[in-house]
Amino acid sequence: MAATILILVLIAIYSIYVIMNKKKQIKEGKFCSCGCQDCPSKIKCSKRDE
Question: Which candidate, 49, 50, 10, places its Cα nearest to that of 28?
Answer without folding.
Answer: 49
